[in-house]
Amino acid sequence: MSNDTSSMADRELIEKFKNGEQWAFESLVDKYSGRAYQIAYGVLGNREDAEEVAQDVFIRIHRALPKFRGDSEFTTWMYRIAMNLARNKYRWNKSRGGQRNVSMDAPIDGSDDANGRRFDVTEPGLSPDVRTTLDELERQAGEEMEKLPELYRQALVLRNVEELNYEDIADLLGCKLGTIKSRIARAREELRKRLAL
Questions:
Q1: What pLDDT, in 10s, does the model give residues 11-30?
Q2: DSSP 2
Q3: Would you call 176 helix, strand, or coil by DSSP?
Q4: Which domains does the chain carry?
Q5: 45 vs 125, which has greater pLDDT?
Q6: 181-184 contacts, C-beta under 8 A, 24 or more apart
Q7: pLDDT given at position 97
Q8: By C-alpha distance, which of 195, 51, 64, 179 is closest to 109?
Q9: Residues contacting residue 118 through CB under 8 Å, at least 6 positions apart
Q10: Contact (CB, 8 A) for 79 and 163
Q11: What are the E-state strand segments in 74-162?
Q12: How many helices (H) and strands (E) does the chain have?
């Protein structure tokens, strides 16, 4: 058993896990738990809910991995599970009056460090007044993103936060490529209008 799993391909780790080597699954968790959290946070806007969903993603993967045939990439499969579980949690929260707050500055690693921003629009060396203006714009963008229709918001999070390509987003959300491009374009245009950019 090698301790250096960072360069090991997902397929190789999956095969090792199928052969009874538990450490291979733990390597997949280490590799992708942050991404699962980001997807969940993008949908839910709540740190605790996102952590719960990210854990559930890997519980589900652990159960299903022995039957994983590799018809798609592991990451695509994992993103689909994360998105489905996050949507279910969102609907459950909504049906019970839960609050949703989508933030564009969710910590990447799940820590409380406010500097771990994915959408950090400030640049070093900016004057305090320019930095304040950019911080305010970032706050407004987060609030306006929360108001976007769910279909637009999901596609935009996967594109801008997770940096997935359009094909992977279409596959994940079960839509045609043109539909995804249209949703993202409309989401961006709607944000521009609401922010008067």
A1: 999 999 999 999 999 999 99
A2: -
A3: coil
A4: 9-100 (1.10.1740.10), 121-197 (1.10.10.10)
A5: 45
A6: 183/151, 183/152, 183/155, 183/156, 184/152, 184/155, 184/156, 184/159
A7: 60
A8: 51
A9: 38, 104, 105, 106, 108, 161
A10: no
A11: none
A12: 8, 0
Confidence of residue 108 (pLDDT cuts 50, 70, 90): very low
Amino acid at 110: G
Token pair of 194 as six digits: 């609401």
Could you tell me if 56 and 84 are in contact, meaning their C-beta atoms sit under 8 angstroms apart?
no
Q: Which residue has the tokens 């992977």?
A: 168
> What percent helix, strand, coil does the chain show, rounded to 5?
70, 0, 30
Task: Give the tokens for residue 87.
Answer: 């949507």
**Tokens 């780790």, residue?**
13
**Pick from 65, 77, 75, 71: which is nearest to 15 by CA?**
65
CA quadruple 21, 26, 29, 32: dihedral positive or negative? Answer: negative
Q: CA 184 to CA 187: how far, in whole Å?
A: 5
At 149-188, the pLDDT tens digits run 888 888 887 887 677 888 888 888 888 989 988 888 888 8
